């Protein structure tokens, strides 16, 4: 039976701008009358129009889940279900994407089939949470939809006060700047935390993200509690022939403006013969020169990771970039990946035991002090642990030499042990 279409004059205006509109997408789904989801989406459009008229939202939470899981479904119950009964339940299922978000079209088609059978047909790839957001399903369909997706190899992601869905960048499969195996690191770390994802019992959310280089394509440094960023320790690799070609194209002034003068630590200089000189000791691995001279410059051979903790924009105490916990760790053996899993487990356990209710890792570290946190997770203090880059050149350096000597001595002792 054809359902009555809701009039949506206010929503229609959203379709008039230059960009594709989600309203057009919803109308497309609502018009597909052979599909089970059409009445639900039509009803949803009606409710949304009603919200625009009254300037109020009408979704409330509740409890919906699948067997054995305490998270992964975001319940949405309508407060105006008497007016719009077909969309009275419009829950979201958070489905964990594969590492690096690699799919083939067969898998995507199968996911769409499941959602057309049980849900609203509306899917978002991917929300800022990283999940595949399957939006709009009734309570009774949640379990069978999950069972079918689970059969395909998918699992639910995180929600609430637990470990959240993780993200890794596209990584070594498609990107030449990749400095470690991001997909492997993500899978190993997250698989080890799955219990805390599916049965949340932490003080607050905990996110881990994995970027292959400092370009940080998944926003790990400021949007995760445990950020793993690829980097390198030796010299940037230079192909001087390619540099000369770029100088020829941009001109010396253009090259200086766009490459040399953009280096934050003035580590670059252009020689008279149009070759590039790099003071690698001063390079802070910001990726700028490599990004703009992709054919000529590339990351070094001694690759590994820098690990930051506690980043989040915005926290209750303000914005925090992650604080460096591990300045550099080489990633070239199975043991290195096991070390990463153990470190992440220590950080998560310390967070679970010491954070206050509704407090993120960064806020906890700010409250108890970095030194106490380091002691708790079993990491030695290192001068390279930086919260944010120095902004003032006027820094008192009295006694620095003695402190450096003490640190070197400590490191020497540690190496000897
Ligand atoms: Fe300078 Fe950044 Fe290039 Fe290093 S990576 S040399 S800091 S521009």
Would you mind describing this structure in some detail?
- By secondary structure, the protein is an alpha+beta fold.
- It has 4 domains: 9-54, no CATH class; 61-151, Alpha-Beta Plaits (2-Layer Sandwich), CATH 3.30.70.2500; 167-233 and 302-404, Sulfite Reductase Hemoprotein, domain 1 (2-Layer Sandwich); 237-298, Alpha-Beta Plaits.
- 37% of the residues lie in helices and 16% in strands.
- The protein has 14 helices and 17 strands.
- The strands form 6 sheets. A 5-stranded mixed β-sheet has the order 7-8-9-14-17. Strands 2-4-6-5 form a 4-stranded antiparallel β-sheet. It has a two-stranded antiparallel sheet with strand order 1-3.
- A hairpin with a 6-residue loop joins strand 5 and strand 6.
- Helix 4 (105-118) packs antiparallel against helix 5 (139-151) and helix 6 (182-191) crosses helix 11 (334-354).
- The longest helix is centred in the C-terminal third of the chain and has 21 residues, at 334-354.
- The structure holds iron/sulfur cluster.
- Iron/sulfur cluster binds next to helix 10.
């Amino acid at each position: 039976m054809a359902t009555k279409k809701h009039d949506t004059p206010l929503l229609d205006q959203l379709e008039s701008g230059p960009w594709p509109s989600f309203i057009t997408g919803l109308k497309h789904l609502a018009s597909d009358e052979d599909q089970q989801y059409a009445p639900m989406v039509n009803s949803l459009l009606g409710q949304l129009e009603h919200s625009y008229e009254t300037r109020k939202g009408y979704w409330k939470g509740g409890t919906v889940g699948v067997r054995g899981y305490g998270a992964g479904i975001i319940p949405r119950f309508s407060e105006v279900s008497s007016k719009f009964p077909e969309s009275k339940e419009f829950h979201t299922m958070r489905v964990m994407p594969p590492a690096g978000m690699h799919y083939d079209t067969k898998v995507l088609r199968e996911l769409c089939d499941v959602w057309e059978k049980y849900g609203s047909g509306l899917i978002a790839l991917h929300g800022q949470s990283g999940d595949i957001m399957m939006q709009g399903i009734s309570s009774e369909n949640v379990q069978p939809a999950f069972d079918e997706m689970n059969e395909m190899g998918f699992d639910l992601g995180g929600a609430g006060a637990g470990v959240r869905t993780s993200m890794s960048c596209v990584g070594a499969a498609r990107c030449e700047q990749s400095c470690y195996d991001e997909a492997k690191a993500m899978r190993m770390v997250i698989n080890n935390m799955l219990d805390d994802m599916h049965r949340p019992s932490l003080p607050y959310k905990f996110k881990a993200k994995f970027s292959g280089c400092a370009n940080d394509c998944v926003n790990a440094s400021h949007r995760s509690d445990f950020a793993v960023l690829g980097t390198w320790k030796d010299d940037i690799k230079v192909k001087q022939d390619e540099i000369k070609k770029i100088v020829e194209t941009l001109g010396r002034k253009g090259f200086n403006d766009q490459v040399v003068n953009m280096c934050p630590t003035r580590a670059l200089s252009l020689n008279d013969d149009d070759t590039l000189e790099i003071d690698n000791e001063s390079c802070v691995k910001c990726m700028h020169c490599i990004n703009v001279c992709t054919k000529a410059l590339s990351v070094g051979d001694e690759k590994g990771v820098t690990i930051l903790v506690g980043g989040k924009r915005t926290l209750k105490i303000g914005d925090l970039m992650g604080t460096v916990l591990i300045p550099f760790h080489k990633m070239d053996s199975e043991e290195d990946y096991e070390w990463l899993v153990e470190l992440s487990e220590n950080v998560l356990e310390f967070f679970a035991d010491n954070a206050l209710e509704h407090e993120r890792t960064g806020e906890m570290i700010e409250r108890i002090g970095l030194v106490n946190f380091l002691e708790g997770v079993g990491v030695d203090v290192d001068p390279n642990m930086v919260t944010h880059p120095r902004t003032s050149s006027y820094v008192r350096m009295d006694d620095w030499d003695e402190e450096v000597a003490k640190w070197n001595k400590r490191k020497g002792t540690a190496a000897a042990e």
